[in-house]
Structures are given as C-alpha cells and as structure tokens.
Amino acid sequence: MSLPTLSRRHLVAGVAALTALQSAPALAMARPKLVLHEWFRGPTHAVGRFRNNFTGDKRKLSVDLMGRWNGKVLSLFEDFFYADGERDQKTWFFERTGDGTYVGTRDDVVSPAQVTTPAPDTVRFGYTADLKLPSATMRLDFDDTLTLRPDGTVFNRAVVSRFFIPVGTVELVFRKGHLPARLKRSGGA
Asked: In CATH, what number does 36-186 get?
C-alpha cells in the first residue's frame, strides 16, 4: 500500500526541514556565553531587591560595581545602596582556576566560594558570609545563580539561608557601562 501523493510530499518536506535544522550552524543555536572575568570587567550597575521569606517584606537596592582583570584574578568592587538609606561596600577576588571555574574570596566570606559554569550562559557559586547587622553579626549561606539573558543583561538570583533554612532571596539585574561616582574619583577603571 502506498502513501497518497500529498502525504509523501509532506513527509519529504518534513525530513528536509529536520535535516536543515540538524545541519544549521552551531552558532545560530548556541546559548549566549557568560564568562565571569569578561562580563564583569569594567563598570556595571544592578538594581533589584531582597525578599524576606518569613515576613514577605521587600527591600529595594542598587549596586555599582567596578571589575578589574589582571589576567588571573577578577577584583570586583561593589557599592550597595539600599532604599532605606543604608550603604555597604564589598570586594570580591575571583581567581581563575580553569575554563569557567574560579575560587572567590571576600573579607566576610568564611571559606572560598567555588565558582562553576554549569551551562554556557550560567555561573553558579555558593558561600557562607558573616554579615554585620546593626545589632550583631549573622552567619548566612548564599547560593548564587547568574544567567546571561538574550538582551545582554545578567540576572542574579541568590537564595539566602541560615542553618539550612531559606530566609530570603536576592534578585538583581546587571547592566554594563555605568561608572560609579566613587570609582570615577579614584580612577578605578
């Protein structure tokens, strides 16, 4: 029994379309690539919020960053600005240990963060930090996932935990090209 002519044409067209998709250049189908020391080199600005899992409260913040790459270590200077007027500064040092891997250190981080690239557009790392609060120092765990979006921004989602209990999330969107005022004064580029 043979297929009707119309069905054979559709079958041939379908096979041809699948063949064309399989032989399309890899670049056309590739995900954008997020390379930590390349993307965060130079000035960057982020906006976002912290959400408290217990109260539902949201705290808006923005971050100005300046990244310097010396061929081995990405130094990332961060200025945090909270909507309630609080400010903070942190400095990360990400030493490249391989293709897509780094070890990250910061003054308040308890042990070095192991940074991996599980997908071309994604960077992940977890760390424990002793954060200074107005009344005390609190040890918190962070599980960060940074994802490069098709529009060229990087979305960061960090789950914040204490004693293995998620207490909140930080969500930030990073954009390239903003030079923080304090870094303009210090010649930070």
From this structure: 2.40.128.20
